Amino acid sequence: MAAQLRIIRQRIRSVTSTAKITRAQELIATARVPRARDRLEAARPYTKAITEAVSALVTHHPGVDHALLNLRPDASRVAVLLIAGDRGFCGGYNQAVIRRGEALRRLLADEGKDPVFYLAGRKVEEWFRFRSRPYVRAWTGNSAQPAYADAAEIGRELTGLFDRPTREGGVGEVHVVYTSFVSMIAQRATAHRILPIEIEEREAPGGEGGAGPAPPPPQYDFEPSPQAVLDRLIVQYVRDRVWHMLLESSASEHAARRTAMMSATDNAHELIGRLTREANQARQAAITGELTEIVNGAGALG
Amino acid sequence: MAKLRVGVVSPEREVWTGEADMVVAKTIDGEIGIMPNAAPVLGVLVEGGVLRLKGTDRGDFAAAVHGGFLACSGDEVSILAERAELGEEVDVQRARDALQRAEESQASGESGEEYVARAARARARLRAAGEDV
Fold this sequence. Notes:
Largest interface: A-B, 31 and 27 residues
Oligomer: heterodimer
Structural class of chain B: alpha+beta
Order of helices and strands of chain B: EEEEEEEEHH
InterPro entries (chain A): ATP_synth_F1_ATPase_gsu (IPR035968), ATP_synth_F1_gsu (IPR000131), ATP_synth_F1_gsu_CS (IPR023632)
Structural class of chain A: alpha/beta
Subcellular location (chain A): Cell membrane; Membrane
Strand content of chain A: 5-15%
Radius of gyration of chain A: 28 Å
CATH superfamily of the largest domain in chain A: ATP synthase, F1 complex, gamma subunit
Distance between the termini of chain A: 27 Å
CATH architecture of the largest domain in chain B: Sandwich
Order of helices and strands of chain A: HHEHEHEHEEEH
CATH architecture of the largest domain in chain A: 3-Layer(aba) Sandwich
GO molecular function (chain A): ATP binding; proton-transporting ATP synthase activity, rotational mechanism
Number of domains of chain B: 2
Distance between the termini of chain B: 35 Å
Strand content of chain B: over 45%
Strand order of the largest sheet of chain A: 3-2-1-4-5
GO biological process, one term (chain A): proton motive force-driven plasma membrane ATP synthesis
Helix content of chain A: 55-70%
Shape of chain B: elongated
Largest sheet of chain A: 5 strands, mixed
Number of domains of chain A: 2
Number of helices of chain B: 2
Largest sheet of chain B: 8 strands, mixed
Pfam family, one (chain A): ATP-synt
CATH topology of the largest domain in chain A: Pyruvate Kinase, Chain: A, domain 1
CATH superfamily of the largest domain in chain B: F0F1 ATP synthase delta/epsilon subunit, N-terminal
Radius of gyration of chain B: 15 Å
CATH topology of the largest domain in chain B: ATP Synthase, domain 1
Low-confidence stretches of chain A: 202-212
Mean pLDDT of chain B: 83
């Protein structure tokens, strides 16, 4: 009886300390979500300006051409970049990206394409290594606070890859799986093809009511020439897309961690409550047992 | 007189927005000065360039911009740079150190675009901060 009581008390102590950890993680994640969202917000003006510039260029100079804009006939090999987190403790966040990546792998295989993998985030890298799956390159250690330099590096690698013909080790398409931030409680793993580029035209958020059609892009003079501008602009546009996905994934990671840790803390508290009741019962049973023994013993002596 | 509405943006943040009388930047083709009602221009800026803004609400100042574009239409000018820093934000000592390191690497025979670009960036930061290089 007393042994059982001791075991239950031990469990209560262990669950209590786990709850402290998950609660701390929850608080940290809660503080980081708004910061990650602020960074996402801070990146918006740049994205908007660069998208406008690219669409102005493509609209007025249909003649200009760039390798990154064109579908390639030899898309037998394609690159897939998986963006996930460096750490666990975030519910299904990393798993969702991996699952989406696997679905994409099957889809590409059905189309007769051979995917090669690039990874961002320690958790996906571990997953690949544990299963001895091949991957080309991994970037790790920055998922909590990505820096633009990382996006530039990834962008450089991927555009370089796309620029080479398939038989020289290049790829014909580049896909990215990242997690889009829907809300504090909903994040969705999303697959997106970034190369060849489809220029996305986005309306400014909140400008829907009575904003009318967007004005046509201005007729720019290009310095030094439309082609030279496009060459540079396109590369920067791709990097910006990657940057955006890194930021959004990071915000999603923190939000997912917050949700996961919040329910872990709740569960721990519930468990502590139940264990406490069990402990009380065990203590009561032990006391009753002792009393019975004393009474019976006294009875036997008398 | 009409003013230009200027935005200097980098992927990480909006570096500066406000009004100015004139914007001077260096494109691959050479210096370009923009005043209100200029013809629309989209130009590639040189790596390690200095952007000058004149007649803003805090007077004239400079910024170091690395790898970017200048887009102007009507009275709006946006400068898109992968990295941008206002002159007053530059840590002069660090920029000097960076310049020195890049020059030493070049002097010791390590050539390569990387070091040239690094030196150019450091010089731009120093010039934006008002130092003579």
